[in-house]
Protein 1
Amino acid sequence: MSEAAVRLGRPGWSIRRALGVVVLLAALAAVPGFANNYYLEVLSEAWFYVLLCLGLNIVVGFAGLLDLGYAAFFAVGAYTAGIVTLRLGLSFWLSLPISVVAASIAGVIIGGPTLRLRSDYLAIVTLGFGEMVRISVRNLAVTGGASGLVGIERPTLFGYHLDSIGAYYYVFLLLAVLGVVASHRLENSRIGRAWKYVRSDEDAARAMGINHAMVKLAAYILGAIFAAIGGCFYAAKMTAISPETFTFNQSLLILLGVVLGGRGKIPGVILGALVIVIFPELFRDVGSMRMLVFAISLLLIMLFRPAGIWPEKWR
Amino acid sequence: MKKGVILAAAGLLALGLADAGPARAAEITIGAQVPTSGSEAPYGIDMLNAIRMAAGEINAKGGVLGEKIDILPGDSACDPQAAVNAASKLVSQGVTGVVGGYCSGATLPTLKVYGDAHVPFVITASNSTELIGANPGNAFMINSTGFDQVKTAVNLFKARGIKTLAIINEGDAYSANLAELTRTAWEKLGNKVVDYEVVSKGQQDFSPVVTRIRQRNPDAVFWTAYYADGALLIKQLRQGGYAGMIALGDGNNSPKLFQLAGAAAEGVFCFSNPTANFLPEAKTFIENYQKQFHQPPGPYSALSYDGMMLMAHAITVAGSTDRMKIIAALKQTDNFPGISGPISFTPQNTLARSNFVVLLAKGGQWTLYTGPGAPGAK
């Protein structure tokens, strides 16, 4: 940041930086004007994973709680949208507040009993939670059992039917931008600093008067809400959801995005999410070897950038 | 300003992706939507091989409308999101039509992608009954659906004097759907399902199930999931002293069942889509396939070969690569002579006849069952 840069209201924001963001957003918003459906499809998926990775980043990056069952929250959102629209016959938009409530409850369910657990033990419990959610939706009648929910109506917004990939490109881009803004605000808030304190030294944080239980629960709940809102729109876009989408691999992929990009660092997490979505697509022409090439490129990144592509500077 | 540079670079990377969409011209391109990665890749590659082989034979005879056919594979990875990406990519590359579709769950969301672009889609393996309702009209299923399998199963049970039935599935979309449809159809006839079990995939010990089946002693046991676990179940049922009829769903037609179940598999029935070795018309197909790929064709190879041939036929009938005309031509398909049997469509674009056959395990291999209750037998 140059000395001459004119300071805006908030510290750290120069006019040049703000301009850069505006230009970048304008460029991204212009993409549907010239890109074909395939690129829109891949980029929508990328924005979607940006949102998921940012959500998980609150738990793993900011609060330092290893979570191997994050896909469960994504499932809560997607199934809430499916049940609200298909079973209850309500508007899709109602599923957003309902899924936020459902995700908060799920966040407390996983956060509450694990407050005193750390590292490996916490990872095992979250892994179990993820599997429990998946197996529950596979066996409940209301979630359509193993076949899942099919024929979810696509929503209408101000008379405009969200029915094309172009529309979902903007939906997921908007969600990703909101996710970035929310993450940024959270990171620099009182609770954001509390998360990082707990991450660095939980005992010291408690000694300084931080309510570690509330702080950790808040991380789980906020992370869950990100995934649940994303899940609602995922259900609307795909119109069909099944338990196979919410496997352990899904949780792992989201975690990979966070770790690969650099935990705790918002731009790093965005990059990580883009890598996990765009790399396998770039290698599509390699054919049957594409997942191998993907895995090797991930290994190389981790070898040369062990803290992630764009790691957080620890202060 | 380092951050700004990186941000700009990321933006450029995203934009750079957007101008690469090549539309190949001068050839007729057909997409092959099959899983070539992930757990189902072996089946997907079997299908892709057969589609390529069909295209090769068509090209050797001068192609379609004087143009060569070029196959573009799209890896569905048996995953809904990956399948939608693959489908969008195929549409963006300007394919004239698409052949393939293995995992029903992955095929389902692609129907809309192809439907919006009016791309004709010949589905050669996926046969979930949920595909029927979701079809926007451009997709054609040349594999019989679950309904036909249930009919085949019920006919066989009736003809063999079965009164009480035990149904066992694994709770996944395919086996649960088949089990549920069978139960409904069986109870509608006034018969009893005395035991309905859901076991987990990869379960090794079936003794609780075997004990219950011994107690309730059904005339037949119907296993609707896949062969790997089915083989163990057969073995343990026979060891447990169950002597009744055992029937298996179409995920069990693999010869590997015999390696796993051994002598216990003798006399077991299996419903199956027509695999190449039971098709009289497929002899040259098997030989050519073996020659070209150095392995025998997979369970869906014959259907995939037919799918490609049918697509080429429809393009010829349409007389152009106009997608709407090809869809109309497919719709009017009348007894197209495929190696897996004649192809015509119902108003819902599903195969007009049931292509299910009944196999009987005899001497350590599958043989075509032609006794009472077999499809086509009186």
Note: Chain B has a mean pLDDT of 86.
Protein 2
Amino acid sequence: MSSTAHAEHLQEPVTGIPNGKLGIWLFLASEVMLFSTLFTTYIILRVAAPEWPRGWEVLNVPLAMTNTFVLITSSVTMVLAYAKAVTREKAAFNKYLGLTIALGFVFLGIKAIEYGAKFEHRIAPSTSIFYAIYFTTTGLHGLHVIGGIIANSVLLWLSNKQWDHPLFVGRIEYAGLYWHFVDIVWIFLFPALYLL
Amino acid sequence: MTESNYGWGLPTAASTFAKEIDFGIYLIHAAMFAIFILWGIFFVYLLIRYRARPGVAAKHEEHGILASLIPDFIVLAFELCLIFLYAIPSWSRIKVETPGAQDSLTVEVTAEQFAWDIHYPGPDGKFGRRDPALVHASNVLGLDPNDPSALDDIVTVNEMHIPLGRPTLMGLTSKDVIHSFFVPDFRIKQDAVPGMRIPVWFEPTKTGKFEIGCAQLCGFGHALMRGDVFVHAPKEFENWLVDQKPALNPTGK
Amino acid sequence: MADKKHSDHHQEQHWVWKYVFSVDHKVIGLQYLITSFLFLLFGFGLLMLLRWQLAYPGQPVPLFGRFLPEALAPGGVLMPHFYNALGAMHGTIMVFLGMVPLGVGGYGNYILPLQIGAPDMAFPRLNMMSYWVYVVGGILMLSSFFIPGGAAQSGWTSYPPLADISPGQTMWLVAMIFVITSSLLGSINFIVTTLNMRAQGMTLSKMPIFVWGQLVTAVLLLLAFPPLEAAAVLQVMDRVFGTSFYLPTGLVIFGQTLDVSGGGHPLLWQHLFWFLAHPEVYVLILPAIGIVAEIIANNTRKPLFGYKEIVASMLFLGVMSFLVWAHHMYLAGMSSKLSNFFLVTTLIISVPSVAILTCLILSLRGASIRYSVPMLFALAFLPLFGIGGLTGLPLGLTTTDIYLHDTYYVIGHFHYVVVTGSLIALMGGVYYWFPKWFGRRMDDFWGKVHFWGTVITMNGIFFPMFIQGLAGVQRRLYDPTAQAHNLPTQPLNVVSSVFAWLLFLAQIPFIWNFFYSMFKGKKSEENPWKATTLEWACPSPPPHGNFETPPKVYRGPYEYSVPGAKTDWTPQHVET
């Protein structure tokens, strides 16, 4: 562990951007490539398809709308949690980060209701190419939400011990960047699958 | 007879565009050899001339950076010539422009694990409807018996008979996985992709038997997936065609 | 042993943390190096089996045949599906588990932080994680030989629909997702380290070519691997959840209609795969070029010719490599007009490669060439990589590719690039940096035996493939004698195979030399090659944290034979 501290503290970053921040941006760049590939796949297969179901007729738009609202709200609470970490208000920080995590769970819960309704009607990824794309993209996005919840929960748990750690505020910022990315992916997915 | 077609170099050139492709292959290889030899001589010269010797120090200064760009520009110019004077025109002659259907023999070629099914329209000149659900050992292409134009269609497996003197225009597809239609003597190759119908044409310049190979890994029988093209004189071809029984009515009852 | 000085104030670490789950970039580098060499050896073993079938089709494999399970090789004769599995796994293991982890994980990890004067990588724990994720991926890949149905058998390119319906593929995909994840984590680490951890004075324009090569490689990995990851996820969906991303409507497999929804497209995979796999070629070659540049500069005792030109070419290669992928697909059924676009980009991308090669050769002019063992490897790289590049020309041209596509010509071409090119350079790197790793030198005589044995046999394997390709012999044929046009050149298969087995013998001196010298080799001085770059400015092997005091950089990386200097090398960190 000492070597980690060694590498992270002793040297000022040459670019002026902290290692962690540069790292998370690079990670997000690769994530952008991942999701753009899926979007490209969606466009190619949709253009080639003889017919394509209307998203708003076969999918549950009100639930997805609610979910969009939930995720956007969680992005706001994430920003507030970061702000409170910067101003060193621990109680408020805990509240907002906890709220972010809770909203993540709400998103997953609503998603589960949506999936459940589909499975009840015997609709699965293998039903058609539309559902294949629907389940794959939203499923992968769901995994990213779970990843975000885990990261945020770890930070919430660490906040007791590492509140004064010099890198702690930075870590909240990086988790926030990731969480916003997950939010943005959904904002693209929602119209692409449900509204277009 | 056919053994003589194949040896250590390129096989016999037996289609109208084979010579054009061979020209490119020979030209590029000549250029490659020339570049490599010249370059090799220079390289060996440097290795000997500038070996470490006591009392002779290396020169620190570097000069002639601009001159070093000369080979880059020569290569670029050569490649641009190749692209615009050779590759694009010949590619469009071979792969983009197809001959008119009325002047050609039209066939449908369907690849499957591990055979080539050749589908002729029969005397009515119309290809019958095909349905994947009807595919059966006795009806490899799934020809629909309810379609009148299917009744006289002729299907051969691994044997493609074509006439000399006019182009053969084929629609290439596959039933299962990706295959690749390759006739070395004709210098033609095209992947057969399920769900796509890709037009391919060639015009033979020699009669005889030429091998069809599969050039895309298609499963455990890939190596055994072969067939033959028989190029006949026009009259002989008509005779062959007349002798064929319709695929849906092989006994001719 | 390296930690003596530092272990006074660090508490003594258990050997598990020191050598197995270490976060030190040097230990991780060596772990990568040795693991990937083992994978290369294993992948080569698969090849030796496969080459038996090509040389003597249908005859039982001698010696090893009896150890093969009946289901794969009854009586020692390889079954076609086992042959295909060997082919697919040879390609996959060599590329994804051998060459990339060796060039990037091994060399990059060990050398890059040293060359920029950093105490470690930016994220040491992430670095350890990358290695172990790679190991897990590798084990999954190997274990696929033991699952029912055997390993993946649809080629390393895994084209669906074949890959969607063949056994073994799911394991391949899962293993690939691990390997890709490992590379992604690694590439983030490399980029951040290179940008953020440089020593004082180490500006971008003073970085060694090796570092530039690693930086461009890392960017390629970062941006090119996610599409393959997505493609692999879609193939997993097809195989496990019955979707049809790559399956069109109306497939009939052996007379049975395939029960899927259809509506997908087989070419989708090819586009996604080659979008990765062409940058992948540069991932294989750029670290090698970096190593060659280091060795050449050091052994010519003069500055590298055209440093800026080489760096610019590397950056240009990096960008262009994202625009050429479909030149693998001229005959795949995509729009014929689109081919013209990729034809132009493909030939444009050859220009920077020519520029790099020209600079490296011109570096010899006015030199004082020391024919050390690493230099022999670096020099051999130049003409052999040249052959690889030149033979890409008839494949890159659409018209000639009609005939040569998917023949042995292609195999000859990319093996000249990757094996006699990259692998030769990566082997030379071992001789060059061995004193750095272990403080000892490898034996020169056995090094030369290894060099000549390797270079001669490699050419013996791959050159006949061009002749076979011109005769029209297709790739991936289980039985090369089944088709008439392949028969005349069949003796060449025997030639290739014999040289392949000899190549194995030529590696024995290398393996022996490596392990013997590790313990018993001649002790090396701190800077045995009299080199200028920073990795030689610390003890060999470097202690934990690398440099006693953070080094300061005063000049460019290759200041050899500076007029007026006392010695013919002026290190980057020495103030004069």
Note: The beta strands of chain B are 105-112, 115-120, 154-157, 159-163, 168-174, 179-183, 188-192, 198-202, 208-214, 226-232.
